[in-house]
Amino acid sequence: MTTFDVDTDRRTQVIDVTDRVEAALPDGASGTATVFVRHTTAGVRVNEAEPRLLGDVEAFLETVVNDEGWDHDRLDGNADSHLRALLVGASATVPVSGGSLELGTWQSVLLVECDGPRTRTVDVRV
User: Fold this and answer.
1) What is the pLDDT of residues 5-46, one digit of tens each?
2) 22: closest CA among 97, 119, 112?
3) Model pTM greater than 0.70?
4) Strand arrangement, sheet containing 108-113
5) How many distinct structural domains can be found in the chain?
6) Measured between alpha carbons, how far is 37 from 81 in angstroms, rounded to an integer?
7) Rounded CA separation 64/95 (Å)
8) Which of 86, 92, 91, 93 is closest to 114 using CA atoms?
């Protein structure tokens, strides 16, 4: 297993971490890589990393889940972040061959921040 940290600078943010995941793979590895974020208010997905689409994903998450009005907010004010991360999911699995990710032409591995700015720890396991 290899880990790396990602610093985010906005409350809701999508960051392409494909290069960092690829760099974490052992030389010659084959099988599947699980990319997992160790936080309940962030997630990992595979999708296109086109900047306008990343902005659309951020706007979508903010629109689908209201910022306020949740019971958990009485504890620490970030229920919306937990709910958004629940929709995204904490991990993605990607095929690996010869030490490289086998992604489609437009696919990238994306870290989805739902409660930033923060430093997030990402695990990569083959």
Assistant:
1) 999 999 999 999 999 999 999 999 999 999 999 999 999 999
2) 97
3) yes
4) 13-16, 108-113, 42-47
5) 1
6) 14
7) 31
8) 86
Based on its alpha-carbon atoms, the radius of gyration of the chain, rounded to whole angstroms, reads 15
Count of residues for the chain? 126
The encoded tokens of residue 10 equal 């906005």
In which domain, by residue range, is 112 found?
Answer: 2-125
Helices (H) and strands (E) in the chain, counts: 4, 8
* pLDDT tens readout for residues 40-64: 999 999 999 999 999 999 999 999 9
Please calculate the CA angle 82-85-88 and round it to the nearest 5 degrees.
Answer: 160
Domain with residue 13: its CATH number is 2.60.120.460
